[in-house]
Write a structure and sequence with these properties.
Length: 126
């Protein structure tokens, strides 16, 4: 059974930092594109960051550029989202997602992921 399990979300003050982790089990995601999404109350789920299967290319939503960093550790089958200078508007449930295909390409994806985690709550207080 394939599972993506997010962790690291919690309540933090504005200006603080968090590192989210997404641990995969049931199969390896080495070489598969992965992404982080978030959904704020009353809003649609949107992509925050994405990383290619090769790990060489990444995408960031404009609102998080320069503050968030996506990375992956293939040996640990884990993808991370380092979030710095957090703002109240970053408050949301954060989800990780993965593609089935392991192509080790430089392509990242903004949608159409095959696997999803259950999410972890990030709350940023002002």
């Amino acid at each position: 059974q394939v599972q993506l399990v997010e962790s690291g979300g919690r309540l933090v003050q504005a200006g603080g930092s968090l590192r989210l982790s997404c641990a995969a089990s049931g199969r390896t995601f080495s070489g598969a594109a992965m992404g982080w999404f978030r959904q704020a109350p009353g809003k649609e789920r949107v992509v925050v960051a994405a990383i290619s299967g090769s790990g060489r290319r990444a995408y960031y939503q404009d609102s998080v550029k320069g503050r968030f960093t996506i990375s992956r550790d293939n040996a640990k089958n884990t993808v991370y989202l380092q979030m710095n200078s957090l703002k109240p508007e970053d408050t949301a449930v954060y989800y990780c997602a993965a593609k089935i295909r392991r192509d080790y390409s430089d392509n990242y994806y903004l949608d159409e992921y095959d696997y999803w985690g259950q999410g972890t709550q990030v709350t940023v207080s002002s």
